Amino acid sequence: MNTSSHENHELVAKLLTRISRRDYTIGIVGLGYVGLPLALAAVNAGFKVLGFDTNENRVSELNLGYSGIKHIQKSAIEKALADGKFWATNDFSKLTEPDALLIAVPTPLNKQREPDLSYVEGSAYEISKCIKPGQLVVLESTTWPGTTTEIVKPILEKSGLKSGRDFFLAFSPEREDPGNSDFDTKSIPKVIGADELSSRDLAQALYAELVTEVVPVSSAATAEAVKLTENIFRSVNIALVNELKIIFEKMNVDVWEVIDAAKSKPFGFMPFYPGPGLGGHCIPIDPFYLTWKAREFEVATRFIELAGQINTAMPHYVLERLVWALDTNFSRGLNGAKILVIGMAYKKNVDDMRESPSLKLVELLQNRGSNVDYHDPHIPELPQTRAYPLFEGMKSKELTSCMIGHYDAVLILTDHDDIDWRLVAKNAKLVVDTRNVCQRNGFVSDKIYKA
After folding, report:
1. Judgement on whether residues 30 and 150 belong to the same structural domain of the protein
2. What is the distance between the alpha carbons of residues 407 and 403, in angstroms, rounded to a whole number?
3. Which percentage of the chain shows pLDDT scores above 90?
4. Which of 100, 274, 305, 404 could bond to 136 as cystine, CB 3.0-4.6 Å?
């Protein structure tokens, strides 16, 4: 296809008009914690959405109205289905039907902690088989600067079509924060980057219909760097307060009290809080994408790597605090100890276990001979995970005064709002609290230890 510059401008103008009229179908590749909220935002904006996922069970559940994600209401899926605005499929030959394809697939690390772009590459290959002139492709998956241009673009151009001339390519990093009721997909500003003006104009016009604010940047690589910068900022600052926690504990100073007082300063300080380690799909993983890419330029990422080392070590610190508390109170170790872990989700009020430090701590406890149970109102049963396959089928225990008192220690790892913390504090023989949730709720005693 030899499309002249004039014809290209005419094509873009027609597509912009179709977007404004909602005569434009959006395809979402990957229907998880990022893709599904994005699909619903598009539906709510008046667009028809076709969702793609390789998981047949997930596709079937969505088409029956089940979101599979706790904070996404079943009624929202049911309404989208009933209105004929949404349908899910695992038939990737239908990728030719949407006018825009938004890719929201995982970007994990492999066993060597290097970027695993297999899901992104696989999606791009599927799209390349049936990409049509005028389609807009936007990558949302977090990755290293250059991925869209160096990896995705060449795969798509195997079709014989050219980016910026025949189809349009952009990057817009996801910014979902599951469980945060203050922000949703629509209210969070959307960064848009593309290497051609026509691609950026189309992507900006589309997302402007989905969200309240669009922030255009000069290139796809810039937009990719924005996302990494956001997550590295959090990783480094969480590592800082985690290290301060260890230092201040030695000095008999409460790090939570220090942070609460410091945040009274109206400038120059932003509060971050320590915990048992990092979790979620972004912050424990994304910084290493930049670390990996930086090697190509012979640049050391010492700050980023040090933060990763500190955060990765936190489960081991928590374990040693638990060992110390057990020895201090009962003159016993972990071998044979009955431990109740509260919270398997990586943060409060969500059912997301991805990269949760709770999984690592359960493994560490079992390796030391402890008998471990857990309670999490958002995760009634542990699913299969790649890193912890033996945990599959473990079920959440009901919290009762008798049950709590049965354990040698309660280890609080996630501070869900819908847990009766008074019941825990009153009936536990020993509490090791990594979230300061007991003191925040007014429960202080000599059997409650912070970690």
Report:
1. yes
2. 7
3. 89
4. 100
Residue 42 to residue 187: CA distance in whole angstroms: 13
Rounded-to-integer distance, Cα 404 and Cα 437, Å: 17
| pLDDT above 60 for 340 | yes
| 250 in a structural domain | yes
Domain count, the chain: 2
- Domain that residue 260 falls in: 233-450
Question: 268-303: buried (b, 16+ CB within 10 Å) or exposed (e) per residue?
Answer: eeeebebbbbbbbbbbbbbbbbbbbbbeeeeeebee
Q: pLDDT-based confidence at 112, cuts 50/70/90?
A: confident
Q: Which of 130, 282, 402, 438 is catalytic?
A: 282
Please report whether residue 195 resides in a domain. yes
Co-location of 255 and 194 in the same domain: no
Same-domain pairing of 77 and 153: yes
pLDDT digits over 297-308, tens only? 999 999 999 999
pLDDT at 98 over 60: yes
Burial (Cβ within 10 Å: 0-12, 13-18, ≥19) of residue 127: buried
CATH number at residue 434: 3.40.50.720
Distances (CA, A) of 165 to 4, 69, 140, 388: 8, 38, 21, 46
* Per-residue model confidence as pLDDT tens digits over 138-197: 999 999 999 999 999 999 999 999 999 999 999 999 998 877 778 889 999 999 999 999
Residue finishing a domain among 183, 218, 253: 218
Asked about 438 being catalytic, the answer comes back as no
Q: What is the DSSP letter of 398?
A: P
Structural domain ending residue among the three candidates 168, 188, 218: 218
Segment holding 129, helix H or strand E: helix 118-130
Check: pTM over 0.70? Answer yes or no. Answer: yes
